[in-house]
Design brief:
alpha/beta, Rossmann fold, 41% helix, globular
Length: 158
């Protein structure tokens, strides 16, 4: 039997962490580097105009549902509309919102209603991750599969 040909392995994506991100998520599999992103907190090197992840904790998200923060947040969500892959990644659980485990007088129903409206209005999936480690793994998975699909599509154009 002949030797199997070497299969060229796709290069691993490098995750860009926005330089303004105050507490970056932990990543265990992919390399990271800081950078300044137009929008979002995480992207992929070379695919910054196609892939964007905005990360919020539950308290951050709650704060974005009212007052001046809401207007700023909506402008950010509007900018994400142009990306091929975009997510709002919430570090925490929906149960934390239901149980009002945040420092605000806003009712959980108002927060959940705002999330639902924004998800539809901005065509932006909201994803909950219970821990920062889980959130990091989600971004690594999304970055790996997205970059692989972009490479496959580019190879089919040749």
């Amino acid at each position: 039997m002949g030797k199997r040909p070497e299969v060229e392995k796709d290069p691993e994506p490098i995750i860009i962490i926005d330089s303004r991100e105050q507490t970056p998520l932990p990543f265990s599999r992919l390399k990271t580097q800081p950078g300044t992103l137009l929008t979002g907190d995480y992207s992929i090197l070379g695919l910054e105009t196609l892939f964007a992840i905005e990360r919020k904790t539950v308290p951050d998200l709650v704060a974005c549902c009212m007052g001046d923060n809401r207007d700023r947040f909506e402008r950010e969500l509007h900018r994400l509309r142009g990306y091929r892959f975009k997510r709002l990644l919430i570090v925490g659980t929906e149960l934390e919102i239901h149980q009002a485990k945040y420092h605000s007088n806003i009712k959980p129903q108002a927060v959940l209603g705002t999330i639902a409206a924004f998800e539809i209005r901005y065509d932006l999936p909201f994803v909950f991750a219970p821990t920062p480690e889980h959130a990091g793994r989600l971004i690594e998975r999304w970055a790996s599969y997205f970059s692989r699909e972009v490479i496959l599509a580019a190879n089919h154009l040749r």
